[in-house]
Specification:
The protein is of the alpha/beta class and about 280 residues long. The protein has 9 helices and 12 strands. It starts with a strand and ends in a 5-residue tail after the last strand.
Length: about 280
């Protein structure tokens, strides 16, 4: 079960929308708690001897800004009153705060927003989502800024048919069972013929998804992102799932740049699941 959900916020519209989605999801799947976290790094100044000084005025002002931010959230997401939630401020970078809290608070799922922007905005927002996915050993649900919560009827799982731990798919199976979703296992490749090792791994999904409505689709395309978007446009899709690889050769194995681009440009909620849980 997905008992505890962690939602990082910077009080922007994008992060508030992700929180709104997380609240609706928590109500649907009956999660026990949502932890809303704001990460901040205090501004620093240095004296003539290089000793770090923290301005008390700046710290106080920042504290008031954060307090106002959490009050804004309560007004923007009134549905919070229907669930059990806590707020917390972490004095650390966003990634360090997420990694630390996901472990210490036994988090089952991180829900965070993305603007789907380009240029400098991609560097700011896209990197946070991508780095969180790569660094946290916890499932991450990425919510596009304009996405709204709805019943998850159809889930796409993008698979490279490389060996993986069966336990890694538990969050996906949980969501599918709770929503009664159909899972489409989609493989995008420029080669028409599936290699023997990939074919053997594909067969294992029959065991992974036993008693779950699922089907297979092969898309011939050298570009993973284009192939997946092609499928998403053709079939109404509520959730896209990826299993990013953590080893250094991931970029070569699964198209790397394509998977990062998918995270940057996703227009539907995207669930990234670590290889092992």
């Amino acid at each position: 079960m997905i008992k505890r959900i962690l939602v990082p916020t910077d009080f922007s519209n994008c992060s508030i929308n992700a929180l709104r989605y997380a609240v609706q999801l928590a109500k649907k799947i009956r999660s026990e708690e949502i932890l809303i976290m704001h990460a901040t790094v205090a501004g620093e100044a240095y004296d003539e001897e290089g000793v770090t000084l923290v301005s008390k005025k700046t710290a106080w002002e920042r504290k008031e800004e954060i307090k106002a931010g959490f009050e804004l959230i309560k007004k923007a997401v009134p549905e919070l009153q229907d669930i059990n939630y806590t707020t917390r401020t972490q004095h650390a970078s966003l990634i360090d705060a997420l990694i630390s809290l996901s472990i210490s608070s036994n988090i089952d799922l991180i829900v965070m927003g993305t603007t789907g922007a380009s240029g400098i905005d991609k560097v700011i927002y896209g990197t946070n989502a991508y780095t969180t996915i790569k660094e946290c050993n916890c499932p991450v649900l990425v919510i596009p800024e304009k996405a709204t919560f709805k019943h998850i009827k159809h889930i796409i799982m993008a698979s490279d048919f490389k060996q993986m731990d069966e336990g890694a798919l538990e969050p996906l199976k949980t969501l599918s069972q709770l929503f009664g979703s159909t899972i489409s296992i989609v493989h995008v490749d420029g080669d028409k013929k599936l290699a023997n090792d990939k074919a053997e791994e594909a067969k294992k999904f029959e065991r992974y998804f036993k008693n779950i409505n699922h089907r297979y689709h092969f898309i011939e395309n050298d570009d993973v992102e284009k192939g997946l978007n092609e499928y998403i446009r053709k079939y109404n899709t509520d959730l896209l799932t990826l299993v990013p690889r953590k080893h250094p050769l991931y970029d070569q194995v699964f198209g790397g740049g394509d998977s990062k681009s998918i995270i940057f440009h996703t227009k539907i909620p995207l669930l990234a699941i670590p290889e092992t849980l």
